[in-house]
Design a protein that fits this description.
The complex is a heterotrimer of chains A (984), B (417) and C (94).
Chain A lengths: L17 E5 L2 E5 L5 H7 L6 E2 L6 E2 L12 E4 L6 E5 L9 E4 L14 H4 L8 H4 L7 H13 L14 E13 L3 H12 L4 E4 L15 E2 L2 E2 H13 L4 E4 L2 E6 L4 E6 L15 E13 L3 E3 L12 E3 H9 L8 E6 L2 H12 L3 E7 L12 E3 L2 E6 L6 E5 L5 E5 L2 E5 L2 E3 L12 E3 L4 E3 L8 E3 L9 H17 L34 E3 L4 E2 H9 L5 H8 L12 H12 L3 H4 L11 E2 H5 L11 E2 L3 H6 L3 E5 L2 E6 L8 H14 L2 E4 L4 E6 L3 H8 L11 E8 L5 E11 L2 E6 L4 H15 L6 E4 L4 E7 L3 H6 L16 E6 L2 E6 L8 E7 L3 H12 L5 E2 L2 H11 L45 E8 L11 E3 L12 E9 L4 E9 L8 E6 L6 E8 L14
Parallel strand pairs in A: 1-7, 8-9, 8-15, 9-12, 15-28, 17-24, 18-19, 18-24, 19-20, 32-34, 35-45
Antiparallel strand pairs in A: 1-2, 3-4, 5-6, 5-7, 10-11, 13-14, 14-15, 16-25, 21-22, 22-23, 26-27, 29-30, 33-34, 35-41, 36-39, 36-40, 37-38, 38-39, 41-44, 42-43, 43-44, 46-49, 46-51, 47-50, 48-49, 50-51
Helix pairs in contact in A: 5-6, 5-9, 7-8, 10-11, 10-12, 16-21
Chain B lengths: L5 H9 L17 E7 L3 H12 L6 E4 L15 E2 L9 H12 L1 H5 L10 E5 L2 H16 L5 E4 H7 L14 E5 L3 E2 L2 H14 L3 E3 L4 E7 L2 E7 L2 E10 L5 H5 L8 E13 L7 E4 L4 E5 L4 E12 L7 H14 L7 E13 L5 E4 L5 E5 L5 H18 L13 H4 L16
Parallel strand pairs in B: 1-2, 1-11, 2-8, 4-13, 11-18
Antiparallel strand pairs in B: 3-7, 4-6, 5-6, 9-10, 10-11, 12-15, 12-16, 13-14, 14-15, 17-18
Chain C lengths: L1 E4 L3 E4 L4 E5 L13 H9 L7 E7 L7 E7 L5 E6 H7 L5
Antiparallel strand pairs in C: 1-2, 3-4, 4-5, 5-6
The chains are: A alpha+beta (984), B alpha/beta (417), C alpha+beta (94).
């Protein structure tokens, strides 16, 4: 077959030929074709199968409303399921396969469902598959799931890139048909910043599909001339292949630009698609209208399509869908298809006009007051059964039928803020209602104005009105001459009387019968109708079927259509690829990396890194010959405790706090007191939330009379800073306090161990002897003349310092520390060793600071000063938080040193059954202590402070078989409980 | 009473389905009832059903301002599970899961309860520790839980992002009994079963006021006139503050919008429910083939039932980070529901200071899975005036007493729960 | 959403972090108020469907805390003020 159905004319480039395949068969088409138009030109009408009954289907439409002609486009990792052939732009080498059919599109075994259709009515599932009870999940559901779904993903990673961008404009024009072009021209000429977006690859909207003249030239030519004029305006951005997918708050619209979908593979460096966030001051919805069908028996045969689509294929693409066609209409617009097709030389067998008084086209047989009552041809239309006003039926041999039940304005984007469309009796359809998104108006067919002249006029008028609101004066130019036919329509929704099925929502196989059953069972609310029958929930979101379904329900209930209601459309306007919405945030780029100042050095050492929030930190630094992580970690711990260790602690939050009220401010935000802290000293601070739970902790140093340096946990660096700003701006606005986050300004290293001082003495310029720089001392120092900060604080329990230098010297600093440490066999340790040492010392960290624990729970209850007001002080006194038998932090050791502990295990009394009534609490953090030679852990234990010395079981029921270890409850301070080493 | 049976379904199919009766009546409201439930969503309908069936109550009405099942039971991600951590929650959610397991036979309605399993992915050691604590708490409460390692997860879903991830998958906490339910069918099943037991389900009836005298409720003012009642139970999550304002109450909650999403239909890809642990993304695949997924709330107070683009993008980013193979699957539809975001992330089922007025709300975005137990426990409270044993912690005064049930440890900030 | 920052002009709401009802600005004094007063202030909310004064923080911006008056049904923003100014007008000082 080589384009047997191609006829003259159309906006395709016949000078070039594209080759493509569908289900392995090779075809040809031309630039300007869609996959659907190209297949139709080759005489292929069968393109898909329906969802439930697996009925053979061809395209219903020529646009994005398509419910039937869904294919898998491309192959391999680029396979793209559910692609509408009607909007898939043809390119050379395109491959497509059919979906939801097995073994083939023509012979689909699942079409058995169609034979059993009498069972598969709306709501069928809810009434059955319940016997026996276990069969739903074991038998029925697996069968249903295998049969369900449409196209398939290959499970390979999408190889294409996606991008995102931001655009700003005075006026966004949605749709580049006559209304949109008129609006854009008006606004563009007035100098406004305009974005004109259209989902099609060729701007012009219906003008490309019609034979109307505009301003004395072919409509498509006028559109092309208008686009050319707009292209010369620097204030206008033309965006073809760009769908406005959603209206969001405050004039923000989401748009998807299909940058590369018309190519076999995106050009190098180009994304497949781009998600634009368009910030508009005003927007005009000029998205046109969608034709709706009339339901009759077997109205889903391939070859039956919307009348407007039939003529679009002829006019725009030069394709005659069938050699013998008929038109079934209830309005004048349907007659245009007959006229246009005949003008193209197609044999128009008959016009079946549901109206008794519709105008007659000369030379064409009219069945006035007639109906199409049935259609034949399983894999493609062969004939239709027609009934005339007298009730006489006739069978007409046709291979294509165009159906028009009128046009539905594309109100979708007007209802994205839940504005309900309103009924327009003139066009018998819904138009945008009140409360549309602020700044949005509608023009042309989207507003219910269906003539070309009306579109041009309302486009201009709405642009003028929109710009007036912005203080921009736009002139009303003279409008080009265009047709202005009135809408003549007599409602006709479905053909009654037949016994078979008449489709309303073809993809989901919702028929008139289903609506009737929903009514019979009292699912009469429009939402119930939708949910019970799945009407409007297919990939086309009811663009062609919703109003029809409503009308059927209205007829059954005796209510009007507007009384019956309307469903609100939700974003997106057409489905959007997940990759597009994610943009570049995937793979390793999902979130940014924050690297520590010693990262490069650590990489050189072969460090193993771990994600800590956004940070990557060295977890341990293996030495040659170490085959297990524990070997490295044990070595790091023992070396630090024996001599000295170095660790990058830059990731802790750092906040400089200055001002005459800085001390008083800290007294409010910490539950303990800081105003009394001596200059040059540090103190451990505990910060509560207002509900009395521990928020954060860290050491804060007083660097001067009115200068403090706070440290926070890594996890809360951002939230603590936000909270402090809140306290200073909102709660105590007159306090003289200034804050700045210095987390990234200082590279900070912990130097810990008996030889810490000796090491540091080699590189700092000042005297840091115990006398000059005592325990918990803090101050500004210099390192080879470089400004630095030194804090004598310890997380490890050793004699320890933290030394900070400006971040850009961080790399030099780690190298200097390592070099200076060589004579002491200094070790650089990672987060694991840090964790071991802090558990040995009983310091709380992330696993204990879980947001569910109070100071009392952490054994720090005495830190909460009642002598001053501080955040969380009052509510920490609530009775439920002061239960003497509540959780207290404890240390845990296995009774048998070989016993293993697991963090997250729960405490049970010896001999108690494993049930919740006996639950004593849980192990929060567990490490192996090389110093003690056994696992140790911290835990929250009910009444734990009274249970020191007691034996219990630590039980882990999550593993099979469950494990349990007899443990001794001990003080959380496993190592050097008196803190002698700190002060050394 | 029209019971669904295999034979009945066949008989109807062969006779053109002409015999199916309305699934519920549309009764005219009576002047008064013993018990009025305000809110015809899942929780309200379940409450009415269990009041009639389990607690021997009669003369019950459910008042619904719109259509039955139109609240959050009709707009959620259909997940059921009982993988909670805290003592106040886990017994309740496990009770709920057990009710789900027998729901269809109880209601004679196929709500497609499907225990396909749920898996919470682990990406850090701290997460594994926390999930180990949680899993043990679940088992101690009689629920099921398993800890999976990375290779076990890979065996189930080899196409997840294991090898190029910003936050690599290290394992998962799994609950095999978790799964999904056809959400609308839950509302319809309860409605039908309640209607069969004589409960009046009154749609398009908005409560506009409460008649309270001497500290006692006498009935409610509605768009269809005054309706008297001995007891009134309010189950209108999303609108709780608005309705309870009629009784002069301020509640410990804010209303927030949560968006949810469905993709176009796809051939089977994901068998169970999965949650990403390094971003906010959870997903399952419906029997129709759509990927049903969600993420975080938009984060600001809202009654608008719609959200904004940043959250849509955030959810898609989480999805693509976890499943790079879904890049070419298309998002089909988004929707927004209004959540009662409570001050500790947990619900309230309690009496109020008004005699005869009871409250059920604050479900945050965990309300769907709670539906059966919420109905049962609320019915228990309404009928017996004392809380069900699994719901004793869901009291208003827990905040005054410092007995918060804060699963996430975020404190009194609703949008963080 | 777009928040019209009093100093910086219109900014995308994504640059901000939301806290909640601006009634939180009325924090009681911990040395005089007790648990009940703190409880009501911290936990209970009007949660109106309509105009709502609420606190937003310009985290990816100038770090201002703002009081935004916004309609929770339409999301329309009616007014934006610096929280510090509002706090001072309420009589908050040190």
């Amino acid at each position: 077959m080589s384009q047997s159905n191609r006829i003259a004319g159309g906006q395709i480039d016949r000078s070039r030929t594209f080759r493509f395949t569908f289900d392995g068969t090779a075809y040809t088409g031309h630039p300007g074709d869609t996959l659907a138009s190209a297949l139709l030109s080759n005489g292929v009408r069968l393109m898909g199968r329906s969802f439930k009954y697996h009925r053979p289907r061809g395209p219903l439409s020529a646009g994005s409303e398509e419910p039937n002609a869904l294919v898998q486009l491309r192959s391999g990792a680029r396979q793209e399921p559910n692609t509408r052939a009607t909007v898939a732009e043809l390119f050379d080498g395109l491959t497509a396969t059919s979906q939801n059919a097995w073994p083939s599109l023509r012979f689909d075994a699942m079409a058995i469902n169609d034979r059993l259709n009498t069972f598969f009515t709306a709501g069928f599932y809810y009434k059955t598959f319940m016997w026996p009870a276990s069969f739903w999940e074991k038998v029925y559901e697996p069968i249903i799931r295998r049969a369900a779904g449409l196209g398939a993903l290959t499970r390979e990673e999408d190889p294409d890139e996606y991008d995102k961008g931001f655009l700003h404009c005075d006026l966004l024009v949605i749709g580049a048909g006559p209304a949109g072009l008129s609006a854009a021209l008006t606004a563009g000429r007035a100098g406004a910043r305009v974005i004109l977006a259209d989902e099609d690859f060729r701007m012009g909207g219906r003008l490309n599909a019609e034979t109307h003249e505009v301003g004395g030239m072919a409509g498509a030519d006028w559109a092309a001339a208008s686009v050319a004029e707009l292209a010369t305006m620097p204030n206008v951005r033309l965006m073809a292949r760009t769908t406005i997918v959603g209206a969001f708050d405050h004039g923000i619209y989401g748009a998807v630009e299909r940058v590369s979908d018309h190519l076999a593979v995106p050009e190098k460096g180009k994304p497949r698609q781009t998600l634009w966030r368009i910030y508009s001051r005003r927007a005009i919805l000029a998205g046109g209208a969608t034709e709706r069908p009339i339901a009759f028996e077997n109205n889903d045969r391939p070859g039956i399509m919307l009348a407007g689509a039939l003529r679009a294929y002829a006019n725009r693409w030069g394709v005659a869908v069938g050699d013998r066609v008929a038109i079934f209409t209830n309005n004048d617009d349907g007659l245009r298809s007959a006229t246009d097709l005949r003008a193209k030389g197609v044999d128009v067998v008959a016009v079946i006009d549901a109206r008794a008084d519709g105008p007659l086209l000369p030379g064409i047989r009219h069945v006035k007051g007639g109906e199409v009552v049935d259609a034949q041809g399983r894999l493609g239309l062969t004939s239709i059964t027609v009934r005339d006003a007298s009730g006489r039926t006739d069978n007409l041999r046709v291979t294509a039928l165009g159906v028009s039940g009128g046009w539905n304005p594309n109100v979708n984007i007007s209802s994205h803020h839940r504005s309900r469309p309103v009924w327009d009796e003139g066009i018998r359809s819904f138009i945008p209602g009140a409360d549309v998104p602020a700044g949005q108006s509608a023009a042309g067919a989207a507003a219910g104005v269906l003539s070309t002249h009306g579109a041009l006029a309302t486009g201009q008028a709405q642009a003028i009105a929109a710009l007036e609101g912005l203080g921009i004066t736009a002139k009303a130019g003279s409008l080009p001459e265009a047709e202005d036919a009135p809408v003549s329509i007599t409602p006709k929704w479905y053909v009654s009387g037949g016994k078979g099925r008449a489709w309303i929502d073809p993809q989901n196989d919702v028929t008139v019968k289903d609506v009737k059953l929903a009514h019979q069972e009292n699912f009469t609310s429009v939402e119930h109708l939708k949910r019970y029958t799945t009407l409007g929930m297919a990939t086309d979101q009811g663009k062609t079927g919703n109003v029809l379904g409503l009308a059927v329900m209205a007829g059954l209930t005796g209510r009007t259509i507007p009384e019956t209601g309307t469903t609100i459309y939700r974003p997106p306007y057409t489905p959007v690829a997940m990759g597009t919405l994610a943009g570049r945030s995937r793979g390793k780029e999902f979130k940014p990396f924050r690297l520590t100042p010693s990262h490069k050095w650590a990489e050189e050492q072969g460090a193993v890194f771990v994600e800590v929030g956004m940070w990557l930190r060295a977890q341990w630094l293996p030495k040659p010959g170490e085959s297990h992580w524990r070997e490295s970690v044990d070595r790091e711990v023992l070396a630090a405790r024996k001599s000295v260790g170095i660790c990058d602690v830059t990731t802790l939050g750092k906040i400089d706090i200055q001002g005459t009220d800085a001390g008083a401010f800290l007294d409010r935000v910490y539950c303990n007191t800081f105003s009394t802290l001596a200059v040059g000293k540090c103190r451990y601070g505990l910060m509560l939330r207002e509900d009395g739970m521990v928020f954060d902790d860290g050491t804060t140093a007083r660097m001067g009379e009115h200068e403090y340096v706070m440290t926070t946990t890594i996890a809360n660096a951002v939230t603590v800073f936000r909270h402090l700003e809140y306290c200073r701006q909102v709660l105590w606005p007159d306090m003289d306090v200034q804050l700045i986050s210095t987390t990234e300004a200082w590279a900070q290293f912990s130097v810990a161990g008996p030889n810490a001082r000796k090491l540091l003495e080699k590189i700092v310029d000042q005297d840091i002897s115990d006398a000059a720089f005592s325990y918990m001392g803090a101050g500004e120092i210099t390192v080879g003349g470089l400004r630095a900060r030194l804090f004598r604080i310890s997380f490890s329990g050793e004699l320890a310092y933290e030394i900070a230098v400006p971040t850009r010297y961080g790399d030099a600093m780690i190298r200097a520390l390592v070099a200076a440490g060589q004579e002491f066999d200094a070790v650089v340790y990672g987060t694991e060793a840090l964790g071991v040492m802090r558990v040995e010392k009983g310091h709380v960290a992330g696993n204990e600071l879980n947001g569910q624990s109070s100071a009392l729970n952490m054994g720090l209850g005495k830190m909460v000063s009642k002598k001053k007001d501080s955040i969380g002080m009052v509510l920490s006194q609530r009775e439920g938080m002061n239960d003497p038998d509540g959780y207290r932090i404890v240390g845990v050791k296995p009774v048998d040193p070989a016993g293993k502990l697991t963090a997250g295990s729960h405490f049970l009394e010896i001999g108690a059954a494993a049930e919740i009534a006996n639950d004593g609490g849980w192990l929060t953090s567990k490490v192996y202590s090389p110093h003690l030679g056994c696992d140790i852990a911290l835990g929250y234990l009910k009444g734990g402070d009274q249970k020191i010395g007691k034996r219990m079981r630590a039980v882990n029921l999550l593993v099979k078989p469950a494990t349990e270890t007899e443990v001794e409850i001990v003080s959380p301070h496993f190592f050097d409980p008196e803190g002698e080493r700190l002060r050394g | 009473m029209m019971r669904y049976s295999a034979l009945g379904v066949i008989a109807q199919a062969l006779t053109g389905h002409r015999g199916w009766k309305p699934v519920w009546r549309d009764p005219v409201p009576q002047a008064s009832y013993d018990i009025i439930i305000v809110g015809g969503g899942g929780h309200g309908l379940a409450t009415a059903y269990y009041l009639a069936k389990e607690f021997g109550q009669a003369r019950i009405a459910v008042l619904e301002k719109g259509y039955l099942g139109g609240g959050n039971v009709g707009r959620n991600t259909t997940i059921i599970r009982s993988n909670y951590l805290l003592d106040g929650n886990e017994p309740f959610y496990e009770f709920s899961l057990k009710l789900w397991e027998g729901l269809e036979q109880d209601l004679n309605y196929n709500a497609m309860v499907s225990q396909r399993g749920i898996m919470n992915l682990i990406h850090t050691d701290a997460q594994r520790d926390a999930f180990t604590r949680r899993g043990n708490a679940m088992i101690l409460n009689g629920a099921d839980a398993e800890l999976l390692d990375k290779e076990q997860v890979r065996a189930m879903y080899p196409w997840l992002n294991f090898d190029n991830a910003r936050f690599p998958i290290k394992g998962a906490l799994a609950q095999r009994r978790g799964g999904t339910v056809r959400h609308d069918a839950v509302a319809w099943g309860y409605a039908r079963a309640a209607d069969l037991r004589g409960v009046d389900l009154i749609q398009n009836c908005e409560v506009t006021g409460m008649r309270i005298e001497n500290g006692r409720i006498l009935g409610v003012e509605t768009s269809r006139g005054f309706i008297g009642a001995r007891k009134v139970g309010v189950a209108v999550a999303g609108s709780s503050s608005r309705v309870m304002a009629h009784a002069g109450m301020r509640l410990p909650m804010e209303s927030h919008v949560l968006q949810a999403f469905v993709s176009e239909g796809l051939k089977p890809l994901i068998d169970g429910v999965m949650t990403f642990g390094a971003g906010h993304f959870y997903v399952s695949q419906s029997d129709k083939g759509g990927l049903v997924f969600g993420g975080d709330i938009d984060g600001y107070n809202s009654y608008a039932q719609r959200g904004n683009l940043p959250v849509i993008e955030d959810v898609a980013e989480g999805g693509m980070a976890l499943m790079p193979a879904i890049g070419r699957a298309r998002l089909l539809r988004t929707w927004g529901g209004i959540m009662d975001m409570s001050m500790d992330g947990s619900p309230i089922i309690d009496r109020t200071p008004v005699d005869g007025l009871y409250f059920n709300g604050g479900w945050c975005y965990g309300g769907f899975k709670a539906t059966p137990a919420s109905g049962w426990c609320f019915a228990h409270l309404l009928a017996k005036d004392e809380p069900h044993k699994t719901a004793t912690a869901y009291r208003f005064d827990r905040f005054l007493k410092g007995l918060m049930i804060d699963e996430k440890g975020q404190g009194a900030q609703p949008n963080l729960h | 959403m777009i928040i019209n920052h009093p100093i910086l002009g219109p900014r995308d709401a994504q640059e901000f972090v939301y806290l909640g009802d601006a009634a939180l600005m009325g924090r009681p004094d911990g040395m005089t108020a007790g648990i009940e007063e703190f409880h009501d202030w911290l936990y209970n909310r009007d949660n109106p469907a309509g105009e709502h004064r609420e606190l937003w923080y310009h985290e990816q911006g100038d770090r201002s805390w703002l009081v935004v008056t916004r309609n929770t049904v339409t999301h329309e923003i009616l007014k934006v003020e610096l929280a510090r100014d509002v706090a001072r007008a309420m009589g908050r000082a040190k």
